[in-house]
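Wait, can you check?
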Amino acid sequence: MAHDEATRRAARSAYAYDQLPLERAAAKAGVPASTLARWKREAKAEGDDWDKVRAANALASGGVEDVARQMLTDYVVQHKTLIDHLRDETTGERMSPRDKADILASLADSFNKTVAACRRVMPETNELAVALEVLGLLGDYVREHFPGHAPALLEVLEPFGYELSKHYGGKA
C-alpha cells in the first residue's frame, strides 16, 4: 500500500519531534514499523537523518537536562540505599572494614563522576546550586559576624532564593 507524503511527514514528526519509539511512531501514523524503518533509512541516505533531528530536538527542548536531572536523582537514591546497606547491622557487620572502605571509595568516585557529568549537561542547575550555596555562606557569615542583622537578612534571602530558582531553574 502506498502512503502519501503527509503520512511520511506525520511519521517523521512523531519519531523526531514527539520522541516516540519507532514502533509507536509507526502506529500513530498508521503504518507498519517496517515501513517506517525503511522510510527512515531512505531519508538518511538522502541526507535527512531522523536520529540527528530527534537528538537536536531533545537538546533544544531541554529534554536532555530533564533526563540528566532524573538520572542524578535516581543515582542519589541508589547511593543512599547502598550507604544504608553498609550501615545495616545484619549486612554491614558481615563485611570487613577493607571491603567497606573499597565500596565507599567506589561510591565516592562514581558520585563525583555522575555529578560532573550532570554539571556539564545541566548548567542552569549547577549555576543555581552555586548561587544557593553563596546565599547560605552569606547567611552563615552574617549570623557569625553581624548577628543583629541576621533576622533582616533572612527576611530578604528567603524570597530571593525563590527568585534565584526562577532565574536559574526556569521554574520555582
